[in-house]
Amino acid sequence: MSTKNLRHQLLSATKPGRVDLLFDYLRTHGDKHYEEEVTQMQHAVQCAALATRSQQPATLVAAALFHDIGHMLADDPVEANHPTLKDDQHEAIAVAYLKDIFPEAVLQPIRLHVAAKRYMCTLEPEYFDQLSEASQKSFRLQGGPMSEQEIDDFEQHAFHKAAVKLRGWDDQAKDVNIEHLEINAYRSSVLESLC
Ligand SMILES: [Fe+2]
């Protein structure tokens, strides 16, 4: 399915149909690695599992599951598959596709998860050291440390704390020793989160 078709189909589908479309899209496009050792699907599901384990609302579980779908939806697969070469703006692409499908409580943590990395790296220099190599490289392309003004702006955002939480799971959800987690375990959270 092309990305344009996906958006069109999402808008015209029922809620259960939207979950099916999104899960099928992740299953079909999530087998790539994007410079991490886990696949995008493993990363997405591990991230949702971490959100669920910390008893977060369904909207944040859904945000965790779909936070990197913009890598798959990016127009240029070369850029999207090598985020350390060029910033693919995947967080903005995801929000553009998922707008009107999910509420702000899902969209905004996704939109802010890259800014949250810059925020954390700026406030806690040791945070940068524990990032994966790919994430350290893309940090520089994504703008590097925040200015004081950028920190203030970020903290003004209603969803900035949710974005920092999502960022924490994002960094952890790269465990090659976790064998298989089933995406269907998150079906009810996604269904509940839809607009
Ligand atoms: Fe991620």
Automatic annotation (TrEMBL):
Coiled coil: none annotated. PANTHER family: HD DOMAIN-CONTAINING PROTEIN, PTHR40202. InterPro entries: HD/PDEase_dom, HD_domain, OP_Dioxygenase. It holds the Pfam family HD. Residues 43-117 form the HD domain. This is HD domain-containing protein. It comes from the Bacteria. Signal peptide: none annotated. Gene3D superfamilies: Hypothetical protein af1432.
